[in-house]
TrEMBL record:
Its EC number is 5.1.3.3. PROSITE patterns: ALDOSE_1_EPIMERASE (PS00545). The keyword Isomerase applies. It catalyses: alpha-D-glucose = beta-D-glucose. This is Aldose 1-epimerase. InterPro entries: Ald1_epimerase_CS, Ald_epimerase_bac, Aldose_1-epimerase, Aldose_1/G6P_1-epimerase, Gal_mutarotase_sf_dom, Galactose_mutarotase-like, GH-type_carb-bd. It comes from the Bacteria. Pathway: Carbohydrate metabolism; hexose metabolism. It is an enzyme of class 5 (isomerase). Keywords: Carbohydrate metabolism, Isomerase. Pfam families: Aldose_epim. Belongs to the aldose epimerase family. GO terms for molecular function: aldose 1-epimerase activity.
Length: 346
C-alpha cells in the first residue's frame, strides 16, 4: 500500500509511505525520503503487538534528528578520516559531516534524498537513487537501489546494490535502531550475541588508528550471549565513545546464511537474528540519542535503542591492509550488500 502525506518533505513534495504485510501479521512501514524504515510491528504469541524499531511521531521529524533512524546510508556508511582518501594516485576531498571527518556519506547523504519507488507490492518495495559525479566529493556517477522485502519467516531483508562509472568506495547500510521491549526503555537490558572474534578500537571521534583487537578477555566479547549492561563502560575503549560504538569483524566473513548477531528482549518474548553479506557489523548502543524525537511525548534518552549496522570496517578507503574485501567499486562491477533482520516471537 502507498499513501502520500499532507505534510511536505524538504523538496516541497509529500512523503510517500509504503506498508508491507505478511501472512504472519507483521506490518512494516517505510518512506521514500531516505529510503527509510519507519516501523516494524510484530505480533507476539500472547496476541499483543510489539513495535521493534525506534522512530519519530511523523515523517517531518526525521529531518530534525541526527540519529539516522531507519535511513539508508551512502555512499559511505560510518567514518572516513579527515574526509579524504587517495585512489589511483588522486586524492579526493569529501564533504565533512562530523568535525573534520565524514560520517555517513556527508552533509547531504543518501538519507537526505528522495528515492524513487521503482516497484512495489504487498511484501516488497524497490527504491532507486542516482548520485551525481562529485556528490559529497565522491568520484563518478553512482546508481543505487535498495530492495526491502518482508518474508514469511519474518525477516526484513534489505539488499543494497550500486554501480559506478568511476572507481569509488561504496559502503551502504541501513541505520535502523532496535528496542525489542516495544516501549521507550533502556536497551542495555537486552541480551546480545555477536559472532565476531575482533573489534576495531577508535578514538573519541570514532576514528580507528591501531587496527583490530581480539575480543577475548575484553568487554567486547559477545561470542556467548550476555546482557549489554554486563560490561558496559568497563574499559577505555568504551569510555571514549560513551559505550559501544564499534565495528566487529564477523566470523561469517560475508556468508549471509550464517547468523552474525542475536538479540533478546529482557522478557525474551521477542528475539531478533541478523544475517549479512557484509564483513563487519557496527554495534552502536545509542550513546548519543539524548533529545532525539520519539513517537511519544518524551524524546529518547541515551541508550534507549541500538543499531547493528552491516558495513565495511570504518575508514576502509584509508586502510587497504585490513582483512576484508576491497571497498572500492569499479566500473563494470556491481556492489551488492544483503542484510536480514529476522524476528522470532514467543
Ligand atoms: C555512529 C555513531 C553516531 C550514530 C548516529 C553511528 O553509526 O557510529 O557514532 O552517533 O551513527 O549518527
Amino acid at each position: 500500500m502507498l499513501t502520500e502525506t499532507p505534510t511536505l518533505a524538504p523538496d516541497g513534495l509529500p512523503y510517500r509511505l509504503i506498508t508491507l504485510r505478511n501472512a504472519q501479521g507483521v506490518v512494516v512501514t517505510l518512506m521514500d525520503w531516505g529510503a527509510t524504515l519507519l516501523s516494524a510491528r510484530i505480533p507476539l504469541a500472547d496476541g499483543s503487538i510489539r513495535e521493534a524499531l525506534l522512530g519519530c511521531a511523523s515523517p517531518e521529524q526525521y529531518s530534525q534528528q541526527a540519529a539516522y533512524f531507519g535511513a539508508s546510508i551512502g555512499r559511505y556508511a560510518n567514518r572516513i578520516a579527515k574526509s579524504r582518501f587517495t585512489l589511483d594516485g588522486k586524492t579526493y576531498e569529501l564533504t565533512p559531516s562530523q568535525g573534520e571527518n565524514q560520517l555517513h556519506g556527508g552533509t547531504e547523504g543518501f538519507d537526505k534524498r528522495r528515492w524513487a519507488i521503482s516497484n512495489q507490492n504487498d511484501t516488497q518495495v524497490l527504491f532507486t537513487l542516482t548520485s551525481d559525479d562529485g556528490d559529497q566529493g565522491f568520484p563518478g556517477t553512482l546508481n543505487a537501489s535498495a530492495l526491502y522485502r518482508l518474508t514469511e519467516d519474518n525477516r526484513i531483508s534489505i539488499e543494497y546494490r550500486a554501480t559506478v562509472d568511476k572507481a569509488c568506495p561504496v559502503n551502504m547500510t541501513n541505520h535502523v535502531y532496535f528496542n525489542l521491549n516495544g516501549e521507550q526503555s533502556d536497551v542495555r537490558s537486552h541480551k546480545l550475541q555477536l559472532l565476531a572474534d575482533a573489534y576495531l578500537p577508535v578514538d573519541e571521534m570514532g576514528i580507528p588508528h591501531d587496527g583490530l583487537k581480539d575480543v577475548a578477555g575484553t568487554s567486547f566479547d559477545f561470542r556467548k550471549p550476555k546482557a549489554i549492561s554486563a560490561d558496559f563502560l568497563a574499559d577505555g575503549d568504551q569510555q571514549k565513545v560513551k559505550g559501544y560504538d564499534h565495528a566487529f569483524l564477523l566470523q561469517a566473513k560475508g556468508d549471509a546464511s550464517q547468523v552474525v548477531a542475536h538479540l533478546w528482549s529482557p522478557d525474551e518474548k521477542l528475539q531478533m537474528k541478523v544475517y549479512t553479506s557484509a564483513p563487519a557489523l557496527q554495534f552502536y548502543s545509542g550513546n548519543f540519542l539524548d533529545g532525539t524525537p520519539s513517537r511519544g511525548s518524551e524524546p529518547y534518552t541515551a541508550w534507549q535503542g541500538l543499531a547493528l549496522e552491516s558495513e565495511f570496517l570504518p575508514d576502509s578507503p584509508n586502510h587497504p591492509e585490513w582483512p576484508q574485501p576491497d571497498c572500492v567499486l569499479l566500473p563494470g562491477e556491481e556492489y551488492v550488500s544483503l542484510t536480514e533482520y529476522q524476528f522470532i516471537a514467543d
